[in-house]
Design a protein that fits this description.
The protein is α+β, with helices and mostly antiparallel strands. 39% of the residues lie in helices and 19% in strands. Helix 3 packs antiparallel against helix 4, helix 3 packs parallel to helix 8 and helix 4 packs antiparallel against helix 9. The chain is globular, with a radius of gyration of 23 Å. About 2% of the residues have low confidence.
């Protein structure tokens, strides 16, 4: 079953956007379109042998006012100042994403863009890649990697990141080889501990990872500032609540830039069957199996001890503290969204939603918590500001306070707002206190 996923806040972590007076936005957007045309004409923008320029929608979230570089097919967008403007319907989810609306496949970006030009171009190129991604044969798979919210999963992921950072600081040669082999070792051990991890991680890396690599490569931001990628990783380590859905924004640029420094145009001809570790092993002639002879567990313990001392001695202690916090947070979510009274919403194939990939919290078999999201489906529109639980891409749950007024078309609580479409209402759910959305007979 294919759903449309729209991702908020997928630009460079930690970037700050400068607010602009409303009357200056048209002029500013005209400049954005000129910047896109200029950037897409550069040699680095040809990295996929595909023109990244195309239909673009810039949208102001508060007003839903859109600015486009071409008209739509419904007449909502009207010519103004050499571009097209209009207000998007509430049925259109807005986010940084590629989306099909009014018969056109658009690159959509939220206003305002980052004030820093290089960071703005990074975001632009990331989203422009998503629009042509299907044409490259690279599907937009978006799994949630639950194992990267566990203590062991995070330890080996963070050690991999530290090894990749160290490799990037070295020129191509023996020292870089050493750090790359370490990165492969920690990734392969993670896959051994969590067998489903490989397919999940590789799928997301060839979606969001390649998109973020494209942004970084086209903007040249990592070439101008050689410490840029390391700073992004360090910021993510301290500010991301979870790596479960955000990790590929880190590994994509790291692996991509390391590959580009060894083999130009490595990305030409790759398919969905390829993956970053195998490409790294091939291009740098690393050992295909990084595990050493002898007892694997003992070998890994020695490798972890050596790597933490070499890269970041505090990793194990930091992750032990975080694990205790995770356990406590999980208990809160279980009480609120599994054991307590909830509103159940069934999801259809037409469901569309936007969310922040940096904040997801996996609950194992009970699904994934999205602290914030905006979702539209046949039954209407839901805006969540205080936690929702999605399970199997088929069901969504939000906490249902006992005093909620269920008889209105617009139902509000302190944590969410639901606008029901005509022909739908709220009815009693499966257990006491639960409610569900159902179609009126």
């Amino acid at each position: 079953m294919k759903y449309s996923l729209l991702f908020l806040l997928v630009g460079v972590p930690g970037m700050r956007a400068a607010a602009q007076p409303p009357d200056s936005m048209l002029t500013r957007v005209q400049g954005y379109f000129e910047l896109i045309r200029t950037v897409c004409a550069t040699p680095q923008a040809k990295l996929w042998n595909k023109d990244l320029d195309g239909p673009v929608l810039f949208v102001e979230p508060a007003t839903r006012k859109a600015y486009a570089n071409r008209p739509d097919t419904t007449g909502i967008l009207r010519a103004a100042g050499g571009i097209y403007t209009g207000v998007l319907p509430l049925t259109v989810s807005i986010a940084n994403t590629a989306t099909t609306w009014a018969g056109v496949k658009w690159t959509m970006m939220l206003l305002p863009l980052p004030a820093d030009k290089d960071r703005a171009v990074t975001l632009m190129a990331h989203e422009l890649f998503h629009r042509v991604q299907d044409e490259l044969g690279l599907p937009t798979k978006s799994p949630v990697c639950d194992h990267l919210n566990t203590k062991e999963g995070r330890i080996y992921f963070r050690l991999e990141l530290e090894a990749l950072k160290a490799a990037l600081r070295q020129p191509v040669g023996r020292e870089r080889q050493h750090h790359l082999q370490q990165a492969i070792l920690f990734r392969q051990w993670r896959y051994r501990l969590f067998p489903p991890a490989q397919a999940l991680e590789e799928a997301l890396e060839f979606n969001e990872g390649l998109a973020e690599f494209t942004g970084v490569y086209v903007s040249g931001i990592a070439r101008k500032d050689t410490g840029y990628l390391s700073a992004i990783v360090d910021n993510a380590t301290t500010s991301y609540p979870s790596f479960a859905r955000s990790f590929a924004y880190l590994t994509g640029p790291l692996y991509g830039m390391l590959l580009s420094q060894k083999q130009a145009d490595w990305q030409r001809g790759i398919t969905a069957k390829d993956n970053f570790p195998d490409l790294l092993i091939k291009n740098y002639q690393l050992q295909a199996s990084a595990a050493q002879s002898g007892d694997p567990q003992q070998t890994m313990q020695l490798a972890v001890t050596k790597a933490t001392r070499e890269y970041r001695p505090s990793i194990l202690q930091e992750e032990e503290v975080r694990e205790q916090q995770r356990i406590a947070k999980q208990a809160v979510y279980m009480a609120k969204l599994v054991q307590g009274p909830v509103l159940e919403l069934k999801l259809s194939k037409s469901m569309r939603f936007s969310f922040n990939p940096n904040t997801l919290f996996p609950l194992g078999e009970e699904g994934t918590v999205y602290p914030t999201m905006t979702l539209t489906d046949d039954w209407g529109r839901l805006v969540v500001t205080g936690d929702a639980r999605m399970k199997d891409w088929r069901l969504l749950y939000v906490a249902m306070p006992a005093n909620t007024n269920k008889d209105s078309k617009v139902i509000k609580t302190a944590e969410w707002e639901l606008t029901l479409a005509d022909g739908w209402h709220i009815a009693p759910g499966k257990k006491a206190g639960d409610q569900m959305i159902t179609k009126t007979q």
